[in-house]
Amino acid sequence: MSKVISASETALSDSPIQSVERAARILGFFSVERPALSLAELTVRLGVSKATTHRYAVALRRANLLRHDPASGLYTLGPKIVELAASALAGLRIIKVAGPYMERLVGRINETVVLSMWDGEAPVVVRVDDNTDRLVRINVRTGARLPALTSAQGKIYCAFLPTGEAPELPEGHDDASFRAELDEVRRDGLAVNSLVVEGIRAIAAPLFQDDRLAGALAVVGTTASIPDTIDSVVARALRETADALSAELGFVSDGRAIPRRRVNRQGGAG
Description:
Number of strands: 8
Number of domains: 2
Largest sheet: 5 strands, antiparallel
Helix content: 25-40%
Radius of gyration: 22 Å
Distance between the termini: 73 Å
CATH architecture of the largest domain: 2-Layer Sandwich
CATH superfamily of the largest domain: GAF domain
Structural class: alpha+beta
Oligomer: single chain
CATH topology of the largest domain: Beta-Lactamase
Shape: elongated
Strand content: 15-25%
Number of helices: 9
Order of helices and strands: HHEHHEEHHEEHHEEEH
Strand order of the largest sheet: 5-4-8-7-6
CATH class of the largest domain: Alpha Beta
């Protein structure tokens, strides 16, 4: 009597290493720009037969790592991914270390404080402290992706990420003007922005771990409560907090402002 092999068993009949690699590749095909993919698209990207791709998709669905919409025939990442992402973030040292600093900064300036990390394409909010006593509280959602070129935190990454890792300017963008602005961000160690949401202003500062940009710390409030100057009480408090947090993360200053130790995207001293 022939044995009936289930789809999940067949998917795992390859070598363990190959199975893990293929499953990881399938999950990596999904992005913010392409959150839903068809079986045909997955097959082409994986470079195997349609039947093999389907077997892996079935196994990933059973593990809640993929979801399938019968109506559209499209696959999306499953709910288990959210749990794994939360666990990964919880294990990042910067989030743990930043907590007390963010809480103290909120108590000092009475504004919402936001920590973001770069996901390869844009800043992603990973922690928010908004325990203010203001009548109107600014609520920033953890997991939100911020504009890479127009948000204050996005400009921090544009200014301090190494060449090749920062986002490229879109066609038609005022390159000279934007690069001049990034030079100011490197010089001041701060980025100020009030263009993303009307009436809301953010000031962001870089965070360094060892010798690399690790994140961006920002203060978010209304245009009435947060001045747009880099020498305001709010801006100074943010910069002092970012410098102290960077030092605890392992960044060693040579006596100059932390951002001045970085190398800008054109290769000169920042």
